[in-house]
Amino acid sequence: MEAPKSKTTTHPSGDNRFKLLDRAITKHQAKGDALIEVLHVAQDIFGFLENDLLIYIARALKRPLSQVYGVATFYHFFRLKPNGKHTVVLCTGTACYVKGAQAVQEALEHRCNVKFGETTEDKNISLISARCVGSCGLAPVAVMDNQVVGKLSPEAAIERIEEWERKPEEVPA
Amino acid sequence: MTIEELIEVAEKEKKRQSQYKHRILYCAGAGCVSCGSNATRDALKKALKEKNLEQESEVLGTGCMGLCGEGPLVKIQTDDTLYQQVDATRATKIVEQHIVAGKRVEENRVDTASPFFASQQKIVLKNCGEINAESIDEYIAAGGYEALGKALTEMTPAEVIEEIRKSGLRGRGGAGYPTGLKWGIVRKGQSEQKFVVCNADEGDPGAFMDRSVLEGDPHRILEGMAIGGYAVGANQGYIYIRAEYPLAIERLKLAIKQAERMGLLGNKILESQFNFRIDIRIGAGAFVCGEETALLRSIQGRRGRPKPRPPYPSEKGLWGMPTLINNVETYANVAPILVNGHAWFAAIGTPKSTGTKVFALAGKIRNTGLIEVPMGIPLRRIIFDIGGGTSEGTEFKAAQTGGPSGGCIPKEHLDLPVDYESLATVGSIMGSGGMIVMDSTSNMVDVAKYFMEFCVDESCGKCVPCRVGTKHMHGLLDKISKGKATADDVLLLEELCMMVKQTSLCGLGQSAPNPVLSTLRFFRHEYDTLLKAPEVFIPSSDGKATA
């Protein structure tokens, strides 16, 4: 008996999120040229790109895994590891630099005991640096849990971190 | 849709607008949204509802109004009043005093006759902050798509290119290549399929001109690209935009949908034989993708790594086809040139650099924000008249243009006219338009180190001079800034700069040493004060060398 033909391969785990991904792949006619678009969609759905996901995409687009992995690691926007519960995206653009973003950076690194680009051991806070978020008029700027905070001082940044640390149970996962 | 119908839409929209006694505009650019302009909007609407004025007043969101440091901004278009720092309470007050009683609220009113506004000349930003960024009707009422109509019905592609060439328009992405010339090359290409690409991968830190144009006047870019497509014979366009600009992406998507629905994009545009589609490609955070060959590779789903030129994209670009690639601001200039004629445009600015340039003014300056000035304006007027001088009353030290590819202009050159050639004479570049002001508290060695760190991070790794050279230069700058270097290290740094500049594959590497070279040229004393005395080796009596 022949297996029913389907246009895209479905993931054996039965995870419904793959259906969304399949839809995006079909939309681009499974063309390898659409790799970056597909990775964007995948990261939107899954939050980050784990190896299994990259293998799946490589097969669906008929591209070597090395190329998919190469693209995923080349671009800063793609994450191969999950973020912490809270994120601080600190702008390190020129305007923010001139207005003292470095002091904020040092204060945060010292307080959280991790470097920028890393997540705290308890997976609570991720420190991320961004090139420029384009709100130069408000420098220095950070995006704290998707909220843009302008004219940020090291003290204000630490205060927010302490708030997050105090009430982890009230925060939606 | 025909041209007559287009005019009809414009008339209808103008009539609709004239129904309102007041048009209340709030800035919905990314800067003001992050200061809470949505709360301002809600407060305005609520206050109008309470006073029963909803029928005669319209509240709408526009693109950037310019004064980004003082947001949220609100403008009463009817009598041209601008208010700054309008929070919810002030919004209510504006409705109560200005709209109801007809008395301007003086406490947070911005003087629109001040040099910040009076010294500017707006072509690219003409609609930004004046029309609803999400309405195609308002764009058409403001004269939108008139140029496309004119090109399709009255002009041949060759005439369009000739018009652009005569206007003297040069690429606004930074290098300043004559736009008309580039269009002509793509037109000559013998190929069934050609492409038009808009470079909206605004990667320079501290630059937000393109974002503001895309957020505030997205249709202008679509129109410019469509005219470009008609001129060079392409029927497919791509806008390559940074993923960091979600609002601009959203507005572009909406604009494309609106234009398609009205028959201004798609098949048989304005009942002509011309077809043109535009798709969006979202970048993924790589500075090198602002380089054209890298950008094209990224559109094709690959790593953004540059290729040696020639062949140039205008001969062999996307999928090997001739590809026209221009910056956002360049496309934004196209429609006004066709409507007003090349002579009008060429009369603005200097003979070699015509037109205007948009700058994002930021750093230690009183008025941060988005400005548009005629080319050739002295730097002093930008910093002191428009910018209002340094923010804390400290002494002006340098203006940085061109981001990590540019240089620092010291106060001795404040009277330099801002155009492509003059900036090059002091070792900087026009760049895409970021202008960061530094005052006496900024340490120039640290600034050079900051930019080098950026280049180390963003080097794609394809060619050795850039990959290894930037890393090594950063190491030397680090050594100097920590006071551990000698005069020999500075010499080595200079040598490395020249080597990387001359041998790198693409613009990123070739221009990476610029911030170092320009700070060395104008602020060498700051390097010198950090140097320690060279270690002298004196042979001791037993023949062993000691320090």
Mean pLDDT of chain A: 88
Q: What is the domain total for the residues of chain B?
A: 4
Globally, the shape of chain A reads elongated
Major beta sheet summary of chain A: 4 strands, mixed
CATH superfamily of the largest domain in chain B: NADH-ubiquinone oxidoreductase 51kDa subunit
Q: What's the CATH architecture of the largest domain in chain A? A: 3-Layer(aba) Sandwich
Quickly give the structural class of chain B: alpha/beta
Count the E strands of chain A.
4
Compose a concise summary of this entry.
The complex is a heterodimer of chains A (173) and B (547). With 173 residues, chain A is of the alpha+beta class. In chain A, 43% of the residues lie in helices and 10% in strands.
Sum up the structure in keywords:
heterodimer; A: 173 residues; alpha+beta; Glutaredoxin; four-stranded mixed beta sheet; 43% helix; 10% strand; disordered N terminus; B: 547 residues; alpha/beta; Rossmann fold; five-stranded mixed beta sheet; 23 helices; globular
